[in-house]
Amino acid sequence: MNSAQTHETIEVSALNVGMLIHLDGGWMSHPFPRSSFKIASADQIATLRALGLARVRWSPQDSDVGGDVPASAAAPSMDRRGSPADRRRRLEPQAAPSPLLTASERQFGEAAKASKQVFDQVVSHPVVARQAAEALTRELVDKMAGTDEMCIQLLSEGSGDRSSAHAVNVSVISLLMGRSFGLGEADMLDLGMGALLHDVGKAEVAERYRHREDHFNMAERRLYESHVANGVVHAQRLELTPGASEIMAQHHEYSNGSGFPRGLTTDRTATLARIVALVNAYDNLCNSAHPAQAVTPHEAVAQLFTQNHKQFDTAILGAFIKMMGVYPAGSVVQLTDDRYALVVGVVSSRTLRPRVLVHDARVPRDEAVILDLQTVSKLGIRRSLKPSSLPEDVLSYLSPRTRLNYFFEPTGESGTPA
After folding, report:
1. pTM, rounded to two decimals
2. What are the tens digits of pLDDT across the range 158-188?
3. Lower CB count within 10 Å: N or C terminus of the chain?
4. Where along the chain do its domains lie?
């Protein structure tokens, strides 16, 4: 067989389970362990589509399907028989009006309020501030204890100011990362404390220098970067553990040495600090100080993976993408039946089939249907979208968050919150 026959190209929309494919661009350009592998599931095909690939190379002679692409290899198409309502009834046996996430939103609001109180007391009452931070961290760690999977939930954007919401977001996602790595209790408590307090040094920095701007001159950049040294001083006054203190000192250090304040590389930074550095970068992309510059969660994951991957620990970045998914909570997507939806919950073991709030003009917004795509076998996600590309009525209905707040709930065996 000649080389042209050995490696043919095929449209991603025509892939099927059993095909041996070959991905170009190096292993860091995709989330799979190897660049050549036999497709084992429909989820892998969905991941390839999510990467935006049009065609890939494949080896017909080494695949478990014939050289001619079978009809079943075509991308899932919308069943056009019957009315739209009939089709949706067949596809959505589990559809139901969505309950408000009152418990998670209340818990996030309480955490954000506690976080703000910690920041307000750091200077005047450091012992009280440390005790409050320890109590909040212990509560989060205890809530994550156990063997249940966790659903990362998108919340409303009304809880807490930006600083306290950022602190809670970074703490929650960092702790979920620590849980996925199987960290022990002491490390989890250090991780939570360091994540919660990582930006406490900004209190001594003038408001206009608390967020890095591209136009900063050298003096202005140093003022911004000084929040790390300020944070280390606070860590000493608060008598934090060495593990939590390292996080505060290193949360802007990057694996390739391009971070600050010391330009440390991976081999000179603590694992817990590398986790927080990544999560902090993700939340800053999604929740920019300038909302017009914020990117969608899907774009943030893609940017971290394709453009910024040299800045982060490879294993930590891989685990982060596996946990958050290609379509993290907060992503706006189009389903395979052409409807628009907002991802509102992701379970790490099935990130390609998250929980979505679906646009349906016939249903009032406060009664909008939330679908668990895990339970709807014939429906999936076609692509991610920018909110600005949505029709005006859909944009108003889905109301994509301008500020993303995250919390978590244990899931039952079905993958839905217990």
Report:
1. 0.76
2. 556 889 999 999 999 999 999 999 999 999 9
3. N
4. 3-75, 102-145+158-291
